[in-house]
Design a protein that fits this description.
The complex is a heterodimer of chains A (about 120) and B (about 110).
Chain A (H helix, E strand, L loop, with lengths): L3 E4 L2 E4 L5 E7 L6 E7 L6 E7 L5 E2 L8 E7 L2 E6 L8 E11 L2 E6 L3 E5 L1
Parallel strand pairs in A: 2-11
Antiparallel strand pairs in A: 1-3, 3-8, 4-5, 4-9, 5-6, 7-8, 9-10, 9-11
Chain B lengths: L3 E2 L5 E4 L4 E7 L6 E7 L6 E6 L3 E5 L2 E6 L4 E6 L8 E8 L6 E3 L3 E6 L1
Parallel strand pairs in B: 2-11
Antiparallel strand pairs in B: 1-3, 3-8, 4-5, 4-9, 6-7, 7-8, 9-10, 9-11
Classes of the chains: A mainly beta (about 120), B mainly beta (about 110).
């Protein structure tokens, strides 16, 4: 399968600071990248959809000014959590999608565990 | 009604048995269907996908799709303790590349 990397794998930051998470598709060009958040023992929650060269589309209830997404190339998307607060502590997972034989396949990165103190 | 529904479980099966995981979806226009496995504390891993009615086999895994009943399932033969995880059903709707996920079924394979 296709490989997606995320960096960092975990990060601890102080309340009020910003954190940037990188998502890379290593062996394919991703038409779209997605950002999810998952709280303990809960299901995946889609935050936003990101297409290369265009503005991200945010899901209802997700603050676009707080979660800044940049998708500068077909292999790289970044999520910046601005002015992070303890309630932003979560497992952030990106995925990358590409089209093969008319179908879109989506592969996940390993995730970034964010802890805000 | 949720768009993609799964029984949260836990589903417990003995080692060596067949585990059957089920998923229903509401959008009749859905075109492709995915099963992901997620271990605790890890990100989801794609197991297999299916888009035609019938069965699709890959090793110990078989996906089954019935579009008329809006039902997709995953069978795991010869279940192993290492199969213990949460299994997520995901459905591609609207013809785009966005997936709608179920809440997952927790599978426990017991020795």
């Amino acid at each position: 399968g296709a490989v997606v990397s995320q960096h960092p794998s975990w990060v601890i930051c102080k309340s009020g600071t910003s954190v940037k998470i990188e998502c890379r598709s290593l062996d394919f060009q991703a038409t779209t990248m997605f950002w999810y958040r998952q709280f303990p023992k809960q299901s995946l929650m889609l935050m936003a959809t990101s297409n290369e060269g265009s503005k991200a589309t945010y899901e209802q209830g997700v603050e676009k000014d707080k979660f800044l997404i940049n998708h500068a190339s077909l292999t790289l998307s970044t999520l910046t959590v601005t002015s992070a607060h303890p309630e932003d502590s979560s497992f952030y997972i990106c995925s990358a999608s590409y089209r093969l034989a008319g179908l879109y396949e989506q592969y996940f990165g390993p995730g970034t565990r964010l802890t805000v103190t | 009604q949720k768009e993609v529904e799964q029984n949260s479980g836990p589903l417990s099966v003995p080692e060596g048995a067949i585990a059957s995981l089920n998923c229903t979806y509401s959008d009749r226009g859905s075109q492709s269907f995915f099963w992901y496995r997620q271990y605790s504390g890890k990100s989801p891993e794609l197991i297999m996908f299916i888009y035609s009615n019938g069965d699709k086999e890959d090793g110990r895994f078989t996906a089954q799709l019935n579009k008329a009943s809006q039902y997709v399932s995953l069978l795991i033969r010869d279940s192993q303790p290492s199969d213990s995880a949460t299994y997520l059903c995901a459905v591609n709707t609207g013809g785009g590349n966005k997936l709608t996920f179920g809440t997952g079924t927790q599978l426990k394979v017991e020795l």
